[in-house]
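Researcher: Go.
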Amino acid sequence: MTGLYIASKILSFPGAYIRGFWEQFTCKLLGLPVEIPGYLRIDEACGHVEHALPKKGFAAYLIATGPGFMNFNSGLFILLAGFMNLRYMGITVWDSVPLFILYALMVYVGASLLCSAFPLVEDAMNLYDLLYRQKKGNIIGRIFAFIPTVITYAGAYLEKYCITFVLVAAGVTAGFLF
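Model: Structure:
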């Protein structure tokens, strides 16, 4: 399964690279040491940064959800901008070659950002462990963090088994076909 995961990350390399950048930026903000530099390594952490696990609840929440939040928001808007111009505005190669290439690239980059919206499974497990098993943090924070934690935990496993890649590819294809 790791080979399929690496292949999906290489195919969606802009999103994987930007996800790694956001993780390293978040690690720098939190003071977490980055163990192995490089964003697109050929291993099970392709598109992620190997870092020390945070010991506090908020830090674990931020490292698990922050980079994915940035990737999801920017990816969704870039994908929609390119998709709307290609599908609904009807921009074709015959109208303008540079615009068509720009919008096709926007669809690709936006989809690749959406493919890399979830953390490593270790980060999601650490978040759940700190907030709900060890009960670090206040009760109000744990209540508000419950739904993002569940989404992050489930999404980490979906991304590990390349299901997010398949879902985004199927969604973009269905958008152009129907």
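Model: Strands lie at 34-36, 50-51.
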